[in-house]
Specification:
heterotrimer, A mainly alpha, B mainly alpha, C mainly alpha, B: mainly alpha, 69% helix, 0% strand, elongated, C: mainly alpha
């Protein structure tokens, strides 16, 4: 359970990094790291079912869908 | 566990980060990432509501007394799969908008 | 100006959330209302009534089977809407200029794809006793097919798993849920046939029906995700 104390600051930092990265491809890859950390958090909270689902869905499928969509649109974000 | 209401606050912060992304970032793909972050924060909130001090995963074994609440896990599992569908739908809308107007970003 | 408005809205939302968060009961308390009502019944009688050690699977397939069916309907509807926007790929439209990667990459994929599929089969069929289930296994199947597609190209994948086959698989979960559910009602019981104790189904038969539901959920969610990937990946010719 104490592992959560180490993971949660990472989670917040990575979420902020995803938001403020200009390169969309890089943001999507950072988002996949966010999902992986989330999976460990699920496992620590007693939900291994969700950990398995999050690894396959969040870090796998969603990121692939985002990458394909970024390839078909534009890669940099203008502010 | 002695975490108190620590994870509720984390879920709140993640929700606000996602909300900021949806409101203030111009790129459509970034907005969809923001929606995903908001979804995960709601999942985290639901699972931490159902957690139980010293509880183990809800797989029945002899000799184990305390289990965490399985009901939020079912709801979140369904919501995760639906989240993929809605994300793909939003992405296909973004791709269509980009291809028909050449704009991957919101104007104005 | 826009940023200021966003920050104002955020702080307003944050104040409300903070007020809600501070007034919630302590996390993890066994006396919390979430741990008291229907959940102890699921945990105590789930194993005997459904035969699933994994309570999540027991709730998903038996106690809330109606929910799961409607969830598959939602997934199906999302796919239908995405297809209405971008259109399904076919052998005529999805031809892309594609360069095969090196021999090493191809060999690794050829060796590992069967192993991934075997793992997915394990996850689907052992959802009753371990932390697996139809959704997870289906998504692993979809991920394997996506890896194959990224290495060998969309054309090759569409030749092997044609859109017609996927069309059948996408609706298989809803159809099998309806079949099992309406059969239960027709025989004078509850919505799902497995939750009707008066019919006197043997344990083996009940297990087989649950396995059918689990496999159909896996196939359907996998097929839906593969179709979503294909419709985003395909490039119109010309």
């Amino acid at each position: 359970m104490s592992l959560i104390y180490f993971l949660v600051p990472f989670l917040l930092v990575i979420a902020v990094a995803t938001v403020f990265t200009r390169d969309l491809l890089a943001a999507v890859i950072i988002f996949s790291a966010y999902s992986l950390i989330m999976a460990v958090v699920w496992q620590q909270l007693g939900a291994p079912v969700l950990a398995l689902a999050e690894v396959a869905i969040g870090a796998g499928v969603t990121v692939v869908l985002f990458v394909v969509a970024v390839c078909r649109t534009t890669r940099e974000e203008k502010v | 566990m002695s975490t108190g209401n620590f994870l509720y606050g984390v879920a709140m912060l993640l929700f606000l980060i996602g909300f900021y992304t949806v409101l203030a970032r111009p790129s459509l793909i970034k907005k969809i990432i923001g929606i995903n972050i908001m979804e995960t924060s709601v999942f985290l909130f639901l699972i931490s509501v159902g957690s139980r001090r010293g509880g183990s995963a809800p797989i029945i074994l002899s000799g184990v007394k305390d289990y965490v609440n399985p009901l939020p896990q079912v709801v979140v599992l369904m919501a995760m799969v639906i989240a993929v569908g809605t994300t793909a739908l939003a992405l296909s809308m973004a791709v269509k908008i980009f291809e028909s107007s050449g704009a991957g970003e919101r104007r104005g | 100006m826009k940023k200021l408005g966003a920050i104002f809205l955020l702080s307003l939302c944050g104040l409300f959330l903070l007020a809600a968060v501070t007034s919630l009961p302590r996390m993890g308390d066994p006396e919390n209302p979430t741990n008291s009502l229907v959940v102890p019944r699921y945990l105590e009688k789930g194993l005997r009534e459904t035969g699933c050690r994994n309570t999540v699977t027991a709730i998903l397939l038996s106690y809330r089977g109606y929910d799961t069916m409607m969830e598959m309907v939602v997934l199906f509807t999302a796919l239908a809407a995405a297809l209405a926007i971008l259109g399904r790929e076919s052998l005529e439209t999805c031809c892309e200029t594609f360069v095969l990667p090196s021999l090493l990459v191809r060999m690794v994929v050829v060796i590992f794809v069967p192993l991934f599929l075997a793992f997915a089969l394990y996850v689907i069929t052992h959802g009753f006793t371990t932390s697996g289930g139809g959704f997870q296994g289906g998504v692993i199947v979809a991920t394997t097919v996506i890896i194959y597609t990224l290495v060998f190209g969309l054309d090759e994948m569409v030749k092997r798993i044609s859109p017609g086959v996927r069309m059948v698989l996408e609706s298989s979960a809803i159809l099998s849920f309806m079949l099992v559910g309406l059969l239960g009602i027709a025989l004078g019981g509850n919505f799902l046939i497995t939750t009707t104790p008066t019919l006197g189904l043997s344990d083996f038969l009940r297990r087989a029906i649950l396995l059918l539901l689990e496999v159909s959920i896996g196939l359907a969610s996998g097929a839906v995700i593969i179709s979503l990937f294909c419709l985003l990946k395909k490039v119109e010719r010309g």
